[in-house]
Amino acid sequence: MFDWATQPFYTLVVTFLFGPYFVNGFMADPAPVVGLSCMANLLPFALLAARRLKERYPEVTVVLGGVGAKAVERKILERFDWIDVVAHGEGERSIVPLLQALQNLLE
Fold this sequence. Notes:
mainly alpha
């Protein structure tokens, strides 16, 4: 099995792109619902970013989408408790019904 953690690129991305300075600036004052979209090869990094976001802002609803999450939606929701929703299909089409459904849950 390929081990991302042993690769120099993984170390570079985790150290710099997902380091506290970058992530804190990127995630300052987030919206109540934050969506992350990713390609399959970037799924581990999107999950890391989502975890950092949820640790800092537990009240934020984290939505993951894109082809990286396709076909593994259930496994993502089971294994990564910081992901609240996995979106299906094109975000441009699913965002309005998704936000309406989330709003209905709060009412």
